[in-house]
User: Fold these one by one.
Assistant:
Number 1:
Amino acid sequence: MSLRSPRFLLILLLGFGLAGAATGQTPRDVTFEDVTRYSERLPVAGGPQAGMAGAGLFAGIDGPGTLFGNPAGLGWLSGSVIEGDFAVQRAQSNTQFETPTARTSADRTVSDYQLGSLAGAYSFPTERGSLVIGISLHQANTYERGFDVSGANDATSITGTFLPNSFEIDGDEIVFDDVRSRIAYEAGAIDYSQAVFDDGDYPFFAAANPSTPAVDDQLELRQQDNVRTSGQLNELASGVAVEVAPGIMLGGGLNLQFGTYTSERFYREMDASNIERDQICTSESNPLGLCPPDDPSNPQTPYDPYFLEGTSLEGFREVQMEERIDTEVSGANFRFGLSAQMTSSLRGGLLIESPTWLDLTREYGTEIRTRFDCDFSSSPNCPQGGVEGLESGDLTGEDREYRIRTPWRLGGGLQYTFAGLTIAGDVEMIDWTQADVSADDASFTGLNRQIEDLEATFNTRVGAEYAIDQAAFRVGVARRPTPGTREFEDIDGQTTNGDRLFLSGGVSYMPSDLFALHLNWLQERFDNQFASYAQGPVVRERLARNQFQIGITYRP
């Protein structure tokens, strides 16, 4: 095979960690962000409790929605019940794109419509005590978000991140240890000089290198990063509760998780001077000094992007990169709980949840396209508007399978009711040291060692409900701390750590004892920061993800 073969490669390139990881890892790399993405969940799945941000679920509520928290709560049901919610998602991202020479901001909103929850429970007729079974299909987490940012950069280029750290020369073939370097070479985003290699120097060069002295500050890049993630994690929960003593319920259940996660990215980088180049290069003056050379057979710097003798592609115009990662998730866990009526007004509960044993299949692919002003591979060719370079990769890529064992969870909650007012609070401890990542074809010893150094985090929920006549009004707040000690600046320049905050509110209308209509709102807020590529522009994001639920409860 020749040193440059213009064929398609079904291989991967550059991973993009939306959950907060800096780019520079390939999609084959599993990170801690993957562990947290599939371990985290919403504070509440649906039903009336959504208006209280899930507060009271660990104490044990008398509804099938308790399966998302403490299954022992089923025992408080005096009859059968059916619940369901329809959810509208709306995620708004305020994003800041900071390069060494510019800072720009952009807003983007993405929406989705889906089933929030569908649940039912059956109370067996018993002479004493209580025996109830229930099942619930609900949304455990959502991944809707997106941003589109752009800015000027005269210091760095993404093409520099494709340069290989190690390689071998086998005859007329280059063997790359890093597949992203290989695909970038096939696409023309980096080039190789045999003459430089023969002299004993590093022989690879990036197509765009605005920081090199040869450019003399004449190359400014216009960069764009457009990202969209979508999908959700669902749970099918089943459970049973029994009254083991007056006012004491025990319950347990099996829960099946399944869902998808999709990340789509379009990255574009172009020579900003091309906007005016076609006009400037036909005039007598040439203030930019980056027009096609007078003698096409002997291009000189700074026009030659590689600064090499004998290269065929000259005059960098543009590189485009498209990435797509599709992940299918499936797994199972167990929940066991106790719920007790401690006094006539106070109810308490305890919960233990096993790890979720997840199997993940990830399909990924990348396509890169480049454009240059001239192609000297066969004859001098510098047409107006430039020429296409090479293209490599495909959006249908390779599959990768791996396994994640999520952490153990321990929870407890209290619920106090007096004269129509209910106040509830929950605390959940997550032991992150028990998480684990594995695969048949790779070792994650380093990642698992980092996980073992983490400390436990505590999720909290607080909410209140006030019922009067045929209506009930609810408010709530929940907090989900981020594991680890990572800190960064948000878009306002304030230090933050990426903790997730949830605010909620809701109202129910109950025209009869058999039927209730619910309207709930749940908002998730958090900040994020990462690099668009290694040593590249900083992307700061503030996300507000709103969920509106319309639901019903029917007690036949």
Number 2:
Amino acid sequence: MPLTVGTAGHIDHGKTALVEALTGKNTDRLPEEHERGISIDLGYAPLELPDGTSLSVVDVPGHERFVRTMVAGASGIDLFLLVIDAGEGARPQTHEHLAILRLLGIEHGVVALTKADVADEETLELARVEAEELVPGAPVVATSARTDAGLDDLRTELAAVASRVARHESDGPARLHVDRSFTLRGIGTVATGTLWSGTIGDGDELRVEPRGRSVRVRSVQVHDRAVERAEAGQRVAVSLPGVERQELRRGDVLVTPGSFGPSFRLDVVLEPLGEIPPRVMLHHGTAETGARVARAGERFAQLRLSRPVVAARGDRVVLRAGTTVAGGVVLDPAPPRHADEARFEALERGETLVYAPVQVDGEWRWSQDWLDELRAGLERAIDAADPLDPGVPVPAAEWAKAVLPQLGLELRGAKLYRPGSAAELGERAEAAEALAGELGLEPVRVADAKLARFLEEQGRLVRVGNGFAISPEAYEQARAVLVDGITLAQFRDALGVGRKTAQLYLERFDADGVTRRVGDARVLRRR
């Protein structure tokens, strides 16, 4: 099974140069990174070890301003490569990165002493002793990216450490935390990330959480190589047709439908590094969000989030407030809205407490408090919905079929509505009247697509082309001049419009089944 190794260490200690020496790939891809000579964003490269082990390398920035990017890269890795300049020794970000690794539960790794070729023996030995004290039990290897000294030893140690790391579980549902999205010509939107669990293959249906959008995978790559299925632990790139790049961002998660839902609160057992303020930034996976800390005794807290994350029991989080102040292990990703120490202790013992839905003997069970909270949340969402479509998406969760009948809402297609509710113009009424006055034979651009769709359903306009509309009377006028075998030029002249306008009308007639194109002419379909 594949594994992921993440770099860590202070700025200018040679992380990126070492990765390039090991893999042959420079992970700095941004022009600004090359101009400034420092890593700003996450970089990735494949690493094949002498024993056949395949590692995905995540290279993180070392500057203190980019610690949150470092946390996003470190989440989901299996072992670390801590980089320390042999001449400088451990520096502030060395210590903070190491603390973050410990809070994330990343116990195994190797320390590389870089730039060993320009350090004298005494300095190198002092750096080695310091590294052994910092990370007891971790192999320490002196290296030089310039001369390649020590690289073979480093690969050997990485292989030995990797052999002791527990492998990922590929039997469960897929969960991929997105750290980057971009568009490629001819392919479309691509999302990349480390696959935490499960597998992903061509044709899979997934959900983008917490956005609640369904997507389909068209192709999968691992380090620029197409694969039939990607496995947990690998660096994965998936192409998602029909998705705009701005519809995905770092912090989103691709999951098997119904397997993970958004978490608005997290119950955690704390691992403090110092005093924890009441408000912090929470880092989970590649997501970052503000959180309010409600303590329950010394060891536990409920984290109430500004934006939801996609978490599971046992996940680790990092809390920062200027610096890293604590970590935590998730005991419950969907807890009730109170911090009860006795409940935390029961969760820590492994007891199953029914608040959010859980299957017991094949049946779904949940608490009334949870149901009331879900109903209230859906009601708020319906209040905020567009009056033209006053519904909200059905929760994409395994329990939905069992719970929906208890909500007192009406299911129409894939959305929930208040019983008897209907689409209304609301504040758009004035805009609708103004638009009606503009419509005629010449198409008018309508920026509000929902309004155009609604008015068309009411028979008040006809949409043509992409974002244009005409009056129903104009549509019938144009239809009346159609004759069998009419060309674009003949139709244009008969209607008295320009070529572009005539084309829009004919394309709409084709779509409506009134005409079909044969060569350069349109023939009437016989009904």
Number 3:
Amino acid sequence: MDFRDLPSLAAALLALDARGVGGICLRGPSGPARDGWLEFLRSLLPPETPMRKLPMGVTADRLLGGPDLAATLAQGRRVVRGGVVHETHGGILLVPSLERVTLEVASALLGALDHGQVHLEREGCSAILPAAVALVGMDESRDDEEGPPRALLERIGIQMDLPARWTAPESDDWISAVSRARTLLLAPSGQSSPDAEGVRTALARSSLELGISSLRPLLHTFRATQLVGALMAEAAGDRNAGDPLPLPPEALSLAGALILLPRAIRIPADNADLPEELEGPPPPEPEGGPPEPEEELDASPKDVEPAAESQKPPPEADPPRGQDEPDPSCREEVVEIRPDQVVPVARALLPADWQPWGARGRTLRGQGGGRAGDETEDPFRGRRKGVRPGDPKRRRIDLGATLRAAAPWQGIRGREPGGPVRIEAGDIRIQIRVRPLGTRTIFVVDASGSQALRRLGEVKGAVELLLAESYRSREEVALVVFRDRSARTLVPPTRSLTRAKRLLRGMAGGGGTPMALGLEEALGLARSGQRDGKACRILLLSDGRPNVDRAGRGGRRAAMADALAIAGEVGRMGVPLVVLDTSPRGTDYLEELAGAGRGRAYHLPRADARRIRDRVNGEAWA
């Protein structure tokens, strides 16, 4: 048995106490390595352990449970049936493609992971069902893709990368060790250790070094340390039935490599005194210093003793020792758990090119402040989210929910056995459908004056960067250009990068500054976007010198007043407005314009495409 084979060790820990270590998130593509690991895990689990696979696109009633229509109609009363989570009580719930789990499904799983129960409150049902499950999730996303929900990863203990060429070891030794360790863990004497306080201190210090703020990983790591210690003791065969659970430093480092390091925000520098072997700190040197060279030891005692006595300092008086106290030289060496070595020793167990997940640029759902992932209700289109009583003429009727609502009342309504179900108006349930709420960013660019070509080039790069990310965030981008005495939509709202590049060719600049016309054109695009259920926002780039009013006439005072009036309409509509001041020293008028539109102004005299893109993504849009 090789305890440094982390995938095999993780499977053994799950077989011993899957909920205690928090389950596992196994990252890597599907293939023979993953199939072999799952078969290895099944061989270590007790035969009676339930292991269910979570279907893709599972609904809330199938996941958590709900009224059983057939049983309710047969018995004349509401009968509750548990879902997939309840059916997996006491076992493992296998979740393929963990990165595709919706936030609705993730939130439904949190109660089972935290409390081991499902609180069912839906469609007139109220029940508490046991659901003590542990997740085994498979994350197939790449580093540059959106990962699993953040709240779900917070509750999963072990997070590791499965090497593509990993092969399962011989399972006989592992099965025997896991079986014996399980028996000892169930014994009352196997639940405590005198080193527990030192282990908790080492874990707390290591967690602070790694930048981990949550307490859940500490609890999972402490339990994993106990399990690894039990496995090591059983593999060595040096533990008696009445001894407490051992907590050796090697077990602490192995548990830290499985649970703590993958959550690290920072990796501290390795300590200079890290031992070469991963078996705890080196033994201390004897008080007399290191042994003398072998040449002197080979000499005769008569030649050595006089010289040694002449150079030996006078001995210090030893403190009195009782008759029953053993000689210190005869004591067994006790390996102290050193908190400063937990992280470097655990890091040495991982591959040389390993990096924590937090340093790979991964995006976790539920972490950002944007609107990507938000949803809006739609009467007929989109994903079915739930049901509620309502008028079937305005929304789609949900036949199953309607029958479940009417079933408990059939006895009172005089339904004959085998006869039709009697439905009243209060039983009718309609579908609640939602669709993704996309965003529309409207760039309004000042293409007048000597800086027009530079501003247009910056915005062109920012538009292309935003459109490159539009598939994930459902971002629409539009571009309004104002110059001379007119404003026009150069790029209509689109998510196509190819179309935007084609339309952005050959942009002209120069002439007057009709800022009011540009804002008015953008306001029209925002109104149409809101009618389509999109969250719209306007971003204005200008040096703040309007000199053409809404009627196309020259005059700086009238042009400034018209632009302020349009900005006020933007603010009253609730459309977020951001003004980027590209003038060399900043303009007070653009601050006033942003205030009229209930927005913000930023002075970016040397804004490039990436700075503009970051400013757009960094705003908490309403």
Number 4:
Amino acid sequence: MKWEIPRLSGNALHTLLGLLDFGPLRRGFGHFLRKELGIEAARALPERLRGPLPLHVRPLQARRSHPRPSQDLPLPTSWNTLGAYAWIQAFRSKRTTPSLLVERVFDGIRILAHHQPSMDPMLFVNTEEARRDAEASTKRYAEGRPLGPLDGVPLPIKEELDIEGRGATLGLKRPPNPSARDATVVRWLREGGAVVLGHSLMTEYGMSPLGVSAQRVLPRNAINPRHAAGGSSTGAAVAVATRLVPVALGSDGGGSIRIPASYNGLFGIKPTFGRISQTGSGFGGTMAQVGPIGLTTYDLAVFLEATSGEDPEDERTYGNPGFDRGWLVGALRRGVRGLRIGVLEDEIDAAEAQVASACRDALRALESEGAKLIPVNLEFAPHATAIGYMTIGLEAFAALYELRQSAWEDLGPDLRLLCRVMESFEADDYLDAQRLRAGLRREVAALLREVDLLALPTTVRGAPPISDLEAKEGMADPKALADASRFVYIANLCGLPAGTAPVGTDSQGLPVGLQFIADAWDEATVLQVMAHLERIGASQAPRPRVCFDTFEP
């Protein structure tokens, strides 16, 4: 019988941390966990699967261009009753104003904060600045000159990114930098008229995909508050799921947009690595990318149009032309006739039965609309998570060097446990992970020369349950971690765009997400297929148990 590490919290977690202060115990535990996380299996892969050590992390593009015919269909119906489009139409018709709605948002934040358990998604709200920007937007609408499809829309920013006067805190126990300037993506959102609310909450240093932290009072799952909301973009997802705002800024280094979006029944997309500037982000490395979580695919499209492009301060964006306004929204009209969807059947089989069933139902619905489902195999798929752990885990471990030396006790127990485990890794783990990553990128690019998209579940099962004690003191749960992360690392390791769409619920009424991965720089095709699911009613954000409804059309 295989023994698994149980979920640990409170005294049990602190006791384990104390034991791991001893080198021999730390090495033994690290070796055991390496086996449990699949790292030893990944290291044992044959040499033929490895590529040369990469000299850059720019995505490997399978095709030079991605022409897609369009059926010129109507936009999905839910876009008109939910999301940013409805807000903009209300502003244009003078049924309400940005100034009135931002006050409703402030009311909603207070109400969500008093909910038990807390559902407040925000770490910090700059009411004075948000009111100022909302007033400016109200004036523009009165004069008939709005700046774009996000003008007047309140938008939270994950605490991973700088906001002027308040630098990124990354879920850590440290004061914000008061001299910070806006991150590039924040500045571009402001230039498009968005009302920047402040910082939304995240898990500590983004290292938990579950939505639990001892450093923050994180909000719970909006569908069922007895379950975790997912992370690390926890506040971003809950702000959208509770209908406080239609869209929020998150980031995704190992599923941190897609996991909380899936757990809360939302749409989310991790763009191509380098699509959106990371200037002003406190989390570096080779995996993470800023992106949106929204109520509709329209919300994702207009966010990407407003924030994509070349930034002279971020070499990762060089050569990225961005999107013309309306181009991605136009992609939502394409339909799926003739679209070749590569279905990773083994990955669907690895999901919990009801998750797999919901994903297959959605794929059959696309097939009935003219898409072609093509079973494909990805030899690296079962090992992607382990390669991801070796990459992002060791990059984070190195980035935390100063804090590990000067403020060890200020780190939460789950982050300290991660650091202890990283200390036991081998000297060449990171370099070998990059060679395996090169092989994975090569294999995925070959598949994407044969199909237009890859389809697989977003998570193995719905959001895990969580107790009040676990939410307060943090927890370590390798099984829940594996269930959340099993399918998301392929896109991060390859730098490819990947989206999640809500396609049903499990036996507990928790949302199920279906994930699509496209070629580098081809976000349009991801949005195209998710929009068609939305159009035919196979995908829509479910009504949450905890709901504020800032905007009521």
